[in-house]
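Appendix B, record 7
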Amino acid sequence: MTVDEILAGLESGTLRSASKVDGKWVANTEVKQMILEVFKAGKNVEQSQFGWPGFVDKHNIPAQKFTEDRGVRMVPGGSSVRRGAYVSSGVIIMPPAYINIGAYVDEGTMVDSHALVGSCAQIGKNVHLSAGVQIGGVLEPIGLAPVIIEDDAFIGAGAVIVEGIQVLKRAVIAPGVILSKGVPVYDCVNERRLEPGEPIPEGAIVVPGTRPVNEKLSWARDMGLSMNCAMIVKYRDEKSDASLELEAFLR
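C-alpha cells (predicted):
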C-alpha cells in the first residue's frame, strides 16, 4: 500500500490499529507498522502549503481540514486532528484538543478542552472525554495494544490513561484518576486486586485512592506516607446513570 492509501484507510476507519478478537482487544501489528513507515517516509516541511503557516511537520501527515458534510463539530480555537486519524460523524471537539495519527474516535463522542487522544488510541461510541483528559498513544512497541475506551464510558476531568489500559463499556473514571500498568486497581465491591493491565470492568466506577507504601520502604511507612492507586467503589446503576445525564445537554 502507498502512504496515501494507508492514511486514507486510517481516516475512513477501514484500517484500525487494534481490534477485538474473541472478546479481547489485540494490536493490529501490520497497521501499526504501516504508520511507522509513514513517519519514515515523511520529511519536515513548513506547513503553509496546507494552510498552517508557522508550523513544521512531516510533509505527508498534515493536520486535517473539516467541512460541514463530515458531520463533525470541530469548534474553532486551537484544536488539531492529524492526518491518519479517524473521527466519526457526530463527534464534538472542543478547543484546544488534539487527536493523533492512528487514533479512532467513534460517533457521538465528546472530546473536551485540553483533551489528548494519543496515536492509535481507540475510543468508542458516545464516550465523554472531559476537560484535561490524557489518553496515551501506544504506537511502539507495535505488538502492544493501545489504550482502549469502549462505548458509553465517561472519563472525568484530568484523568490520565496510558500504557495500553482498557476501559470497558459504560465504565466511569472519576476526575483525577491515573490508570497505567504500574498503578494498582482495587475492586472494593468484589474484594480483589485487578491483575496489572487487566481491563477496567464494564460499568465500573473508579475513583482515585491511596495505599500504604511497600514494606521495604520502612521509613516511609513510619512517616505514614502512601502511594497512588485506583479503586472500584461501585458499578453503574440507574442512580449513577442519572448523574451523567448532563452530558446530553452538552451536545
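Remarks on this record: The longest helix spans residues 29-41. The CA atoms of residues 211 and 227 lie 5 Å apart.
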